[in-house]
Amino acid sequence: xxxxxxxxxxxxxxxxxxxxxxxxxxxxxxxxxxxxxxxxxxxxxxxxxxxxxxxxxxxxxxxxxx
Amino acid sequence: xxxxxxxxxxxxxxxxxxxxxxxxxxxxxxxxxxxxxxxxxxxxxxxxxxxxxxxxxxxxxxxxxxxxxxxxxxxxxxxxxxxxxxxxxxxxxxxxxxxxxxxxxxxxxxxxxxxxxxxxxxxxxxxxxxxxxxxxxxxx
Lengths: 66, 140
Hints:
CATH topology of chain A: 434 Repressor (Amino-terminal Domain)
Largest interface: A-B, 22 and 18 residues
Structural class of chain A: mainly alpha
Distance between the termini of chain B: 25 Å
Helix content of chain A: 55-70%
Largest sheet of chain A: 2 strands, antiparallel
Shape of chain A: globular
CATH class of chain A: Mainly Alpha
Strand content of chain B: under 5%
CATH architecture of chain A: Orthogonal Bundle
Order of helices and strands of chain A: EHHHHHE
Strand order of the largest sheet of chain A: 1-2
Strand content of chain A: 5-15%
Number of helices of chain A: 5
Number of domains of chain A: 1
Number of domains of chain B: 2
Number of helices of chain B: 4
Distance between the termini of chain A: 10 Å
Number of strands of chain B: 0
Oligomer: heterodimer
CATH superfamily of chain A: lambda repressor-like DNA-binding domains
Shape of chain B: flat
């Protein structure tokens, strides 16, 4: 699954550590999501979408359908 | 940047607190394990009451350590929980499979020495560490 987390974070000038604190996860987890090594659970995906004020589909794209 | 959770303490502080909590319990358990192992020989010269007391204290602290470990796992984020789960699964699987094979080698007298549980504990600990290390590498 691809995502735009890195772009959205950069637009807001947040560091990975700041985003991790806001999402209550480790910085390694944010990094793993950004590099497509880890797909977040649905609750975490909703948390991310709420934080950025976007829908889940705006942030995450299924590689098979995109 | 506003936080998503309304808990009074932040996630990082809670995680650190639980990790330190687990370290205290583990240290206490290891120390009392050493006491119960070497105490009868070097400290209280095989006094059965003191030996039983040392074992019971070790058992109690062991239960406390298990509870502390569960609390530590619950406060980790989902990816860290996944890494822990995979490492524990690997450790348990290898421990059971290799432990039973090792036991069979002993009961069928294919090895001359008795099977020691300490070897199994060492194997499971090393496997767990390898699992944690490879898990962190995979998601780095």
